[in-house]
Amino acid sequence: MKVSEIVEELNLEVYSGQNGLNRGVHGGYSSDLLSDVMGHAEFGDIWTTLQTHKNVIAIASLKELAAVILVKGYKPEADTIKQSNEEGIPILGTSKETFEINGLLYNLLKK
Q1: CA–CA dist 24, 54 (Å, integer)
Q2: Fewer CB atoms inside 10 A, N or C side of the chain?
Q3: pLDDT tens string for the chain (111 positions)?
Q4: Virtual CA dihedral for 90, 62, 80, 23, nearest 10 degrees?
Q5: Short-list 12, 53, 19, 14, CA closest to 34
Q6: Is the pTM of this model over 0.90?
C-alpha cells in the first residue's frame, strides 16, 4: 500500500514531503523515543509519534521509513517541514490519539 492511499483512507492531513507520497508502506511503528525507533523500526514503516522536531526526519531517513504521522493535532516545526521536503519523507497529521490511529492503520494494512 502506498502512503497516498493511507492518507486518503484515514483522512490524514499532509504537512510536507509530498514527493514521498508514492512510497510503499510495509508496516507501522509507534514510539516517542527516538532511540527506540532507531533500534526497532523497520524499512517502510509508518511512524506514529507526537514528536515535532527535525530529528524525527533524521531518524525516519536513517531507517528509510515511509512516512511520519503526528497524532493529537500536533504540527511539525518549520525546520522539520523543510527537512521533510528535502528528504521526501511525508509528515502527515491527525487529531486522533495514538491508540486510535494505530488501530485504524493496523486494520488497513491487514486488508
Answers
A1: 22
A2: C
A3: 999 999 999 999 999 999 999 999 999 999 999 999 999 999 999 999 999 999 999 999 999 999 999 999 999 999 999 999 999 999 999 999 999 999 999 999 998
A4: -10
A5: 53
A6: yes
Hey, what's the cell of 54? 527535525
| 51, 59 Cβ separation under 8 angstroms | no
**What's the CA angle centered on 101, arms 96 and 107, to 5 degrees?**
150
Q: Which three cell numbers stand for residue 85?
A: 521536503
Q: Compute CA distances 61 → 11, 20, 24, 81, whole Å.
A: 24, 12, 14, 14
Site of grid cell 511525508: 90
3 state DSSP class of 93: strand
